[in-house]
Amino acid sequence: MRKIYNYSIARIDVAVKAARDVDVEEMLVDFRGFRAAESVEGDLCLEIASAPEAKSDRWESVCEDCNEFGRLRLSRRPGAYRLEVETDGICHALTCNSDFTQGVAYLNRYDRRGADALSAMLHVMWAQRLVAHGGMSVHASCVEDGQRAYLFLGKSGTGKSTHSGLWLEQFPGVSLLNDDNPALRIIDGELWAFGTPWSGKSPCYRNVGRRVGGIARLSQAEENAFQWVTGVDAFVALLPSCGAIHSDAEIGSRLFDNVILAAEAAPIAHLDCNRLPEAATLCHQSFNQR
After folding, report:
1. How large is the average pLDDT for residues 108-133?
2. What distance lies between CA 81 and its chain's CA centroid?
3. Radius of gyration from C-alpha coordinates of the chain
4. Residue 223, class by beta-carbon neighbours within 10 Å (0-12 exposed, 13-18 middle, 19+ buried)?
5. Are 118 and 109 contacting, i.e. CB atoms less than 8 angstroms apart?
6. Is the pLDDT of residue 41 over 70?
7. What tens digit of pLDDT does each residue of 211-234 get?
8. pLDDT at 40
9. How do 209-220 and 190-194 pair as beta strands?
10. Is 155 helix (H, G, I), strand (E, B) or coil?
11. Cα–Cα distance, 196 to 206 (Å, whole number)
12. Closest CA to 190 of 208, 207, 211, 210
């Protein structure tokens, strides 16, 4: 007998199926605020296998990456993708169809970081389904004031979380929405930001959506300077922070279309900034005076 755990993340329905002796809710603690009605089957369905994976070497390597989950290796063959998540020398695997609607997770249940591997697998599948629904997973820090969300983009080490912290310290009513991987979606012509179960080192897992009030791409500088960007410059400011499989022709094409719409739907700027309160003041005033 299998049990289904249902979640809704940025209005994308996710179903996780597992044997009843697998405590998915305990594995996915950060997902608890995203639980949905049990009747929902999901736009994305991931099943935790009860048997080992049948080995095959007919996979073409796509890319490798290291992040907080461990070492990730993505490969593909016609009609399917495979993701390996290696944590502390132990490998877990996901196989799924090419549109990421159906997948099977082969987890080493005795690995203490098996839950991290499961979360990573869901993140990869969900990010591709988000693109199919007019959205994108963004590497950013995001704050909100109860009405609007503001996202801060930039390369690792630029100071995205630091800038969010300055907003939290200085402006009453501002709170953290997500500190690593918020979602963006075009809904009825407006750009919305959503919290997700993936928030880096900050335990901020909020099932909240806000209309976007502004997006700033940060660069470290001694002097603060704020500049609006539009058109191609806005596209270039946003695209590098969007997480999707760019090499997949269909996903890549949809992502480009989504970024174009997002760049047209919300104000985007470039902020040269230091790590002092004046940087946040300049950014906050510029967005609110627009």
Report:
1. 92
2. 19
3. 19
4. exposed
5. no
6. no
7. 999 999 999 999 999 999 999 999
8. 60
9. antiparallel
10. coil
11. 6
12. 211
pLDDT digits (tens, 9 = 90+) for 42-52: 799 999 998 87
Q: Tell me if 150 sits within 8 A of 213, measured CB to CB.
A: yes
Tokens in use for 101? Answer: 């609607």
Burial of 262 (0-12, 13-18, 19+ CB in 10 A): buried
CA distance 123 to 115: 12
What CA–CA distance (Å, rounded) separates 120 from 221? 34
Dihedral sign for Cα atoms in the order 122, 7, 11, 115: negative
In the structure encoding, which two tokens stand for residue 162, read together? 């630091």
Hey, what amino acid is at 267? P
Token code pair at residue 166: 């300055």
Asked if 192 and 209 count as a contact pair (C-beta separation under 8 A), the reply is yes
Spatial contact of 265 and 191, defined as CB atoms under 8 Å apart: yes
Q: What is the mean pLDDT of residues 160-188?
A: 97
pTM summary value: 0.94
Q: Please give the Cα distance from 221 to 158 (Å, whole number).
A: 10
Contact present, 129 and 43 (Cβ < 8 Å):
yes
Residue with tokens 């005795």: 110
User: In the block, which residue shows the tokens 């997949």?
Assistant: 248
Which structure tokens are listed for 36? 């949905």
Closest of 226, 255, 120, 264 to residue 181, by C-alpha: 120
Q: How many residues does the chain have?
A: 290
Half-sphere exposure for 202 (CA within 13 Å, toward CB): 23
Segment 183-207 shows an average pLDDT of 96
Q: What are phi and psi of 108, to 5 degrees?
A: -85, 100
Query: 135-164: per-residue pLDDT in tens?
Result: 999 999 999 999 999 999 999 889 999 999
